[in-house]
Amino acid sequence: ARWAADDELAAAIERDGTDAFLERWLASPLFAGLRPAPADLAARRANPPEGLAAALRLLGTGVQQPLWDRLGDLRVPVLLLAGAEDAKFTALARRMAEAVGAGAEVALVPGAGHAAHLERPDEAAAVIERFLDEHHVPPLRSGT
Q: What single DSSP character describes residue 26?
């Protein structure tokens, strides 16, 4: 069902174009808390419809192999980050943490929905930085 939905959406993107897709996509309740900056919208509009459609068809959830049964094999600390206002992905994060077991942490970004890292970037970054500090992960770039 997910594959069929992604394929249908890909066909609509090819038919209607990137602008129409973005208008519908960003108007969905999933992104109600997201207010993209003009530069972000311009960058998104630069995506060709064929590329977006191909990404859905080749990388979408509907074509990915389920790996739930392998989550318990993870032997590294795992941070599952979700927006506190995103009930679906908050529940998925908790379910994944249970499957991972020891070493898994669920962190919810207050006041954020599905795109927590875009809606509340400073808060999301603080959660990630704290997690990395606690697990002694060195900074990825100098000065951070």
A: H
Residues 118, 138 contacting (CB under 8 angstroms): no
pTM, 2 dp: 0.78
Q: What long-range pairs does 51-59 form, CB within 8 A, spacing at least 24?
A: 52/10, 52/13, 52/18, 52/21, 53/10, 53/11, 53/13, 53/14, 54/10, 56/6, 56/7, 56/9, 56/10, 56/13, 57/6, 57/7, 57/10
pLDDT tens digits along 60-87 = 988 999 999 999 999 999 999 999 999 9
How far is CA 131 from each of CA 34, 68, 117, rounded to the nearest angstrom?
25, 23, 15
Q: Under 8 Å CB-to-CB from 50, ≥6 apart: which residues? A: 14
| pLDDT tens digits for range 98-143 | 999 999 999 999 999 999 999 999 999 999 999 999 998 777 665 5
30, 118 in Cβ contact below 8 A?
no
| 42, two tokens | 């311009």
